[in-house]
Amino acid sequence: MKKVLFLLLFAHQVNAQSTKPASLQPPQQSDSLSIVNRQLAPGEMKKDLQLFLDIRKKANSGLYRYRSVKQIDSIYQWAFNQVRQPMSTTDFFKVIVQLTDFEGSCHNYTEPGGDLVKYFNRQRSFFPFALKYVEGNIIFNSKTPQIPVGARIVSINGVADKALMSSFYKYLTADGYTTTQKWSNSVNTSYGIRYLYEYGLKDSYTIRFIAPGATEPQTVTIPAVSLEERKANLALRYSAPVDSLIDYNVQPKYSFKMANPATGLLNLRIFTMADDANDPAFPVYVKFIDSVFQVLSTNNIPNLILDIRGNPGGSDPTFEQPMMYLTDASFKENTLAYTIFGNGIPYEKYFWGVSTSERMDSAAKVAGKAMLQDYFPVFRNGRNIQDSKHNPVYLPKQPRFKGKLYLLIDENVASAASHLASLVKAYANNVTIVGVETVGGYYYHNGHMGLIYELPYSKIKTKFSIVHVEQDAPLKPDQPEGRGIIPHHTVWTSFNDFMQQRDTQMEYVHKLIGGQF
């Protein structure tokens, strides 16, 4: 979910030279942080916690997908024990985040109230540099005289590297028990506002590191920067030339080229090329996909690389389109999909909308309820089963690709993209999957429709998807329950390739093919 971040300069002025008697002084305002990150009373937090649990029991069809009733009861007992004493909003937020993560859905998302988010974003407290997860370590990823590129970070502000990484896992939700994205994004994406949530506002950062080829650690202290300065530094990170190859913010949403005379390369960076089948952009995309497979067939191309690394998902029915050319079997999006409440929106008083940046108005609510009624018309035996018209059978298309397919995935592949990867592994002919286990699940996910609620006392917003989806994914011996799509060849970025700015995973595929770039 994209968030618009406002960077403002906060200034607090005090007239220390006033000669007025104390009794005539205007009342002193509380520090801004103490307002937006106020101390919450135990009673307030208990009420928010109970509401958080009640909403999920009523509306979240995935609450007990990977956790038993006993396990859910246990973690909530822990949470209620945590709030027996007053605590700050951010500390309470960290309790809620752990509950969110425990459920096992990559569509879960929680953030503090908007005022607190804005306050943090306008502070000059951000970590200045880019870091990258490489071979299990935190690797320095900025070009600066203070620290060499490739240095291994030993600690930041006295917190050791492994403790730093594990402290961010709770913010990184994943389907089931998958951990790959937690490992990498505990480094790659956790040193912006997430660091401030976890460790508070900082004026400076003391970094202990070991330079490449060295054995003894060194220490430098560098000042914190503004959010805009951090963004500018990230844009210039050392790994940007390689990272940008799979970045949907940089690359076209979909593209095709011949990597070499024997190998086509189809890139699908994000499935937002069309909102749905009625979008005028959809037939354009469908025509493009067909043209790709016409080229492959006409020229009898023996190899196709389908690269969906970094693809966070998107809309139906975009991800099904390439799949129809990769199999001789029919398939469906799911074998079962349902919600667990009847008409209306449970606990509507606390319902916020579908985006944390904007509260849903009454007209949008009416339209949303109508859509729910259309997709899930009948409530029976505790379930609203999806209407069959929204789960069509997809038939194979011609010309079917008859060569060798190589699917490239990574830990950031989620939602619709991991659903495509699941279908490819289940039904594609002659496929080899290379990369890293996806954050999205192989067998199940909760998705489609996300609801956001705001807790009344803490103003914390929490999002979860309400549709339980059992994917059209046959049982496979190398696909355990509660895991993402597991590649045939697990390939992470190597340190040497990071230093030489090479794409480890793509080079691995070309070696499998036996060709050259």
UniProtKB/TrEMBL annotation:
Signal sequence range: 1-16
UniProt domain Tail specific protease: residue ranges: 289-441
Pfam families associated with the record: Peptidase_S41 (PF03572)
InterPro entries: ClpP/crotonase-like_dom_sf, Tail-specific_protease
Gene3D superfamilies with a match to the protein in the record: 2-enoyl-CoA Hydratase, Chain A, domain 1 (3.90.226.10)
Keyword terms: Signal
Protein name, per record: S41 family peptidase
Species of origin: Chitinophaga nivalis
Classification of source organism: Bacteria, Pseudomonadati, Bacteroidota, Chitinophagia, Chitinophagales
